[in-house]
């Protein structure tokens, strides 16, 4: 185990002790029972009749609170812990367990996983495409160094690990219409580079150590009750807020910029479904998922069917436009549909209707109060 001792010396403290002995055992053939061609540590960490104990990192962003709600409905309130480095609203704080966790603090992460007997880890912490370009050093640290912590913790403790990837993991040399699961991936943003790295590292840990890694490449996600965190697809959420508030919207992408998009309920359900899918149905560990593709002009037209007075103008942000022009226009998710039965519920008309219903109900409630 000389390799392991050398490697251990560059990793601080006790961090790798357990994982190192596991790898040592694997190298020496002592843990043959664990390692099948699709080995899953899940089977040794909790029985199938138990509920998983879930930790969500970066849980106070656009997606985490909604995912916690869905998972708590399924597994029980106390079996799903939200975590972040931000302060939760009182609503979120009182809706179930919340804990401070900085994914750059390895020991703190390990303590949370051990003390709470975590079995599933959903890793949502990240800097998205536009904020990542504005702060490359921080994006590199959170999206890459943070991911390394998560992978090591998950492998050490036999967790089932979900890490989302994105349409942003593709670049200008990828086929864009449609973009298949397996093709050239040469993204031009730190966000995209970090997500390709996450896909490859997760798959490597799966094949090398049997880590039960699962990854979906999400399209741009549209939600009514949570705000996006600084991405290129944010316009498709903002248009609803501005349309309701002011009847006007200034779009930062060109009117004909086509991008894959999905309503949040579909995204969160897909996440639960892939996490629950039997390992033998997964022919891959990273899947594209898709629902619809539209341009700002098409979204505005669908909204104008119900709000004919809505005025949309364009003031292009060149950083975001360059990113969008390098991303897929249509996403091929046929493997997800074939392997584990992925099916979206919301197309553009249902999305617009659902968003408007939400804001309509909110406005009526505000008026009544
Ligand atoms: N929202 C979308 O349209 C899409 C999201 N995704 C992925 O889904 C995941 C969740 O996305 P969103 O909720 O939209 O992101 P978001 O940007 O809204 O939230 C990310 C969260 O990470 C937290 N965070 C930042 N640094 C941290 C650290 N050091 N330790 C712990 N937490 C930290 C932030 O406080 C924030 O609450 C991300 O990995 C993102 O890449 C992928 C494709 C589309
Ligand atoms: C598609 C994404 O990953 C995100 N919404 C972004 O625009 O950065």
Automatic annotation (TrEMBL):
Its EC number is 1.1.1.103. GO terms for biological process: L-threonine catabolic process. InterPro entries: Epimerase_deHydtase, NAD(P)-bd_dom_sf, NAD(P)_epim/dehydratase. It comes from the Eukaryota. One of its GO terms (molecular function) is L-threonine 3-dehydrogenase activity. Pathway: Amino-acid degradation; L-threonine degradation via oxydo-reductase pathway; glycine from L-threonine: step 1/2. It catalyses: L-threonine + NAD(+) = (2S)-2-amino-3-oxobutanoate + NADH + H(+). Pfam families: Epimerase. Residues 54-289 form the NAD-dependent epimerase/dehydratase domain. It is an enzyme of class 1 (oxidoreductase). Belongs to the NAD(P)-dependent epimerase/dehydratase family. Catalyzes the NAD(+)-dependent oxidation of L-threonine to 2-amino-3-ketobutyrate, mediating L-threonine catabolism. This is L-threonine 3-dehydrogenase, mitochondrial. It comes from Salarias fasciatus.
């Amino acid at each position: 185990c000389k390799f392991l001792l050398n490697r251990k010396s560059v990793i601080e403290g006790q961090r790798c002790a357990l994982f190192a002995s596991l790898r040592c055992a694997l190298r020496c053939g002592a843990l043959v029972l664990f390692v099948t061609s699709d080995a899953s540590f899940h089977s040794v960490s909790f029985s199938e009749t138990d509920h998983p104990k879930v930790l969500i990192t970066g849980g106070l962003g656009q997606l985490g609170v909604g995912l916690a709600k869905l998972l708590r409905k399924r597994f029980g309130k106390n079996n799903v812990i939200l975590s972040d480095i931000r302060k939760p609203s009182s609503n979120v704080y009182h809706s179930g367990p919340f804990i401070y966790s900085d994914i750059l603090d390895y020991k703190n992460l390990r303590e949370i996983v051990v003390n709470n007997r975590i079995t599933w880890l959903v890793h949502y912490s990240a800097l998205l495409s536009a904020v990542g370009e504005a702060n490359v050093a921080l994006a590199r640290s959170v999206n890459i160094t943070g991911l390394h912590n998560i992978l090591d913790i998950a492998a050490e403790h036999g967790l089932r690990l979900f890490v989302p990837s994105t349409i942003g993991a593709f670049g200008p040399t990828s086929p864009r219409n449609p973009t298949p699961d397996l093709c050239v991936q040469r993204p031009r943003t730190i966000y995209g580079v970090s997500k390709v790295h996450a896909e490859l590292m997760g798959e490597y840990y799966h094949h090398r150590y049997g880590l039960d890694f699962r990854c979906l490449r999400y399209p741009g996600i549209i939600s009514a009750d949570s705000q996006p965190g600084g991405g290129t697809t944010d316009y498709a959420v903002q248009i609803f807020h501005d349309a309701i508030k002011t009847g006007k919207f200034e779009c930062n992408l060109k009117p004909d910029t086509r991008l894959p998009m999905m309503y949040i309920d579909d995204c969160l359900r897909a996440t639960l479904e892939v996490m629950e899918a039997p390992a033998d149905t997964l022919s891959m560990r990273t899947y594209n998922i898709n629902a619809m593709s539209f341009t700002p002009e098409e979204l505005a037209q669908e909204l104008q069917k119900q709000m004919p007075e809505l005025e949309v103008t364009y003031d292009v942000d060149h950083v975001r436009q360059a990113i969008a022009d390098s991303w897929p226009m249509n996403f091929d998710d046929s493997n997800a549909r074939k392997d584990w039965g992925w099916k979206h519920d919301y197309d553009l008309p249902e999305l617009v209707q659902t968003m408007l219903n939400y804001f309509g109900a909110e406005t009526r409630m505000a008026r009544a109060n």
